[in-house]
Amino acid sequence: MSKVDLIQLVKEKVQSLKAYHVENVDCEIKLHANENSFPPPPEILKQFEEAFKSTELNRYPDPDCSALKQTLSRRLNVTPENLAIGNGSDELIQILLQIFCDPGEIVGFPDPTFAMYAIIAQGMGLKSQTHPLDEQWDFKAEPFLETLNTSQAKIAFISYPNNPTGNCFSAGEVQKVIENFSGIVVLDEAYHDFARKSFISELPRHNNLIILRSLSKIGLAALRVGYAVADPLIINQIDKIRLPYNSNTLSQVLTERLLNHFEPVQKQLDALLQERDRMILELSKFGSLTVFPSDANFVLFRVEKDASAVFRQLMDRGILVRDLSRHPRLKNCLRVTIGTPEENQSFLEQIANIIK
């Protein structure tokens, strides 16, 4: 029987990592993961049932995701050659770092932002260079560009809207970064369907710009579908790196069906936006909370007392939110996903009881 010291075989860059933490507690109301709390509408479920009946589960998926790319190209007014499909946008982030960075090189992004940029980079032996956001969770282009250039960053990630702060950065400042950074600029527009702001129109003018989008936030989180929109040369490099059949048949077919019958989903998104505005208004009435503006489907807020204690009390009452207080810039901050009107009302009632 072999008894190997396994940890000594694990690379130091991995040993020092902390896994991306996702609360997986069995709470009645889950408002922690920025999902669409509404189930798929009946019209969409019918489309899914028809698609499933005709799916050949014994056959490999279309490796090129041709039908899904055609649907996306019509919606986005780009060519299929501008598109790459990923197993969630996380996979595409990893692939882009493989393409453009060697071990030891620098990845730049504002801070705080989506944690996976740094986690994936470190796991690949890359270094992260952060640029602090100001008190309004925004940045100025010139100092950000100085940070990127001084560190010799090869690629910059900009979450737009930004997770976890919820806001879109000043469009003019983002534009300056796109126009003046000589490396790769990745605009992560995972929450585009809520912000309804985009830099996709800039793609023809900037061949170093990449737009990432996700279907997870609008109701297909279980299917893990993300996509990149970029210059065809970049798409070709992605196709060299991505694993064969990285997108399964059901993810491709069901996503295509949803995008081609989008009206009932759009009604859900419109309802979530109305609820977001209501949640911000109601939370702002509590003098002990600092509520930040949001362009996404979640709201960041700061409590006066210990956020972890509030988090646990909410969880004890059957409501799961996201505790962000471990980040030094997010002390005593919680993030709540916008749910159904009933879920949101329950959250508002319970947070009121807790902070009294």
Strand-helix topology:
Layout: H1 6-9, H2 12-15, E1 29-30, H3 42-53, H4 66-76, E2 83-87, H5 88-100, E3 106-111, H6 116-123, E4 127-132, H7 141-150, E5 155-159, H8 171-180, E6 184-188, H9 192-195, E7 209-214, E8 225-229, H10 232-241, H11 249-260, H12 263-284, E9 289-291, E10 298-303, H13 307-316, E11 319-320, E12 322-323, E13 333-337, H14 341-355
Parallel strand pairs: 1-11, 3-4, 3-5, 5-6, 6-7
Antiparallel strand pairs: 2-8, 7-8, 9-10, 10-13, 12-13
Written description of the protein model:
By secondary structure, this protein is an alpha/beta fold. It has 2 domains: 6-41 and 264-355, Aspartate Aminotransferase, domain 1 (Alpha-Beta Complex), CATH 3.90.1150.10; 57-260, Aspartate Aminotransferase, domain 2. It has helices at residues 6-9, 12-15, 42-53, 66-76, 88-100, 116-123, 141-150, 171-180, 192-195, 232-241, 249-260, 263-284, 307-316, 341-355, and strands spanning 29-30, 83-87, 106-111, 127-132, 155-159, 184-188, 209-214, 225-229, 289-291, 298-303, 319-320, 322-323, 333-337. Helix 4 packs parallel to helix 11, helix 5 packs across helix 6 and helix 7 runs parallel beside helix 8 (171-180). The model has no long low-confidence stretch (mean pLDDT 95).
List the main descriptive attributes of the protein structure presented here:
globular, four-stranded antiparallel beta sheet, 356 residues, alpha/beta, 2 domains, 16% strand, 41% helix, Aspartate Aminotransferase, domain 2
